Amino acid sequence: MLVKIIPNEFNPWKYLQEHELQAGKFGATATFIGTMRDYNVGDTVKSMFLEHYPNMTEKHLQKISNIALQRWDILDTLIIHRVGEILPGDNIVLVAAWAGHRAPAFEACRFLMEELKAKAPFWKRETLVNNEVRWVDAN
Amino acid sequence: MLVKIIPNEFNPWKYLQEHELQAGKFGATATFIGTMRDYNVGDTVKSMFLEHYPNMTEKHLQKISNIALQRWDILDTLIIHRVGEILPGDNIVLVAAWAGHRAPAFEACRFLMEELKAKAPFWKRETLVNNEVRWVDAN
Amino acid sequence: MVTIKFFASLREEVGKNEVQIEAGEQLTIAKIWNQVCDGIPLPNHVLMAINMEYTDLNSLVKDGDEVAFFPPVTGG
Amino acid sequence: MVTIKFFASLREEVGKNEVQIEAGEQLTIAKIWNQVCDGIPLPNHVLMAINMEYTDLNSLVKDGDEVAFFPPVTGG
Fold first, then answer.
1. At the topology level of CATH, where does B2-18+26-35+53-121 sit?
2. Of B7, B16, B122, C50, whose Cβ has the fewest other Cβ atoms within 10 Å?
3. Given a cut of 90, is residue A28 above it in pLDDT?
């Protein structure tokens, strides 16, 4: 299990490539990447600030990873989440689940994203092109 | 939409990294990778041969990609499938779906894999450690 | 002429890879199987295609078509 | 002492980032809000945690605890 909060831009494919499981022991890898759009609820967004609750956020992500590892027949999980100032096109989150077979990999990956969205302490504050600043309140 | 049958080992993360959509226009990328295990239904597998039906296979994969692009609010899809002789740890298939939001990306990615498994003309013949050769008949 | 192809385990069972036959009148997929496979009964779950589109035993085949028989697929 | 933290839009609404108070007897999360937030009514949907675990308004807080109030989360 890997959980990481990072303040800098990251390349999700590089992380996945470097997260090597033992060859032959897994058959399925499901991943999800959330990337910043330049639009939201009808407005053009210039930049975004991602706030989190240091330590609680990591603790919560470890908790949902543990739940996934217990609930599905999976081998490993990974969650990487960006914080700080970000720009359109920057990756926000990477979630992955490895398993012997596809169904648990797909289901655990989806579960991790839905749980992260529902309860992990992150907050988005976006700056529109007209420099209006607003907290995102839908998810 | 990209559909590709390849006879050589491939690095899925490299393909994904090179498949660039316009920054800011997508918010969600769901991917699935199927990788050869060194075990199957209780036996140790040494190698596998992946047969396909040239042209029909590509045609079928394009068809399910088109269905996904019509059925979900997604921006793009990618399917890469290996054929020929492969070894444990080699990647067999890569499927990806890009969208504005996570739900259609997840659902389209899962749909593509399930459809591929159900109907795309590929057949696996595995060679066990005792050199027994058998066609895989479960999926 | 009609080209008939066999794939994977079915190719081994039937002992043929590709066969060409004359396209007669009212030629169906079922008739092709019987004509080409020397009395081998059609295995359960066999899939069939005309010109690379899935089809069924009753479909009519015409001159120039490519017909294929194959076992359940196991890709991915 | 009890440390109370506010995050995101709630920090701006309350006008506080972090506050420390004495841990009295039978101190609940609800009492802390009232004591620290100068009569601001508790907004709907506010989430709260003690020592980084989600909790509710009736939970008891003891000396050394860290309490947090924050708006609905929007990560991912």
1. Aldehyde Oxidoreductase; domain 3 (3.90.1170)
2. B7
3. yes
How close does chain D come to A75, measured CA to CA in Å? 23
What confidence tier does A139 reach under pLDDT thresholds 50, 70, 90? Answer: low
Q: Per the CB < 8 Å rule, is A37 touching B25?
A: yes
Chain C residues within an 8 Å CB radius of B137: 9, 71-72, 74
Contact, B38 vs A25, CB < 8 A?
yes
How many pairs of residues across A and D have Cβ atoms under 8 Å apart? Answer: 71
The answer to whether the CB atoms of A26 and B35 lie below 8 A apart is yes
Strand locations in B1-139 (E): 2-6, 28-35, 39-40, 43-52, 74-82, 84-86, 91-99, 122-128, 133-135
Q: What is the CATH number of domain C2-70?
A: 3.10.20.30
Q: Does B25 touch chain A (CB under 8 A)?
A: yes
Residues of chain C with pLDDT below 50 are: none
Interchain contact, C74 vs B116, CB within 8 Å? no
Residue D76 in contact with residue A92, Cβ under 8 Å?
Answer: yes
B64 contacts chain C (CB < 8 A): no
Interface of chain D toward chain A, CB-CB under 8 angstroms? 5, 7-9, 47, 49, 52, 54, 68, 70-76
Chain C residues whose CB is inside 8 A of the B113 CB are 76
The answer to ipTM > 0.90 is yes
User: What predicted TM-score, i.e. pTM, was given to this entire model?
Assistant: 0.96
Helix (H) or strand (E) holding B113: helix B102-119
Whether chain C has a CB inside 8 Å of the CB on B96: the answer is: no
Give the residue-averaged pLDDT of A59-70. 98
Cα atoms in the Cβ-side hemisphere of radius 13 Å centred on A97: 29
Of B20, B18, B10, B16, nearest to B30 by C-alpha is: B16
Cα separations (Å) of A6 from A41, B112, D30? Answer: 26, 32, 34
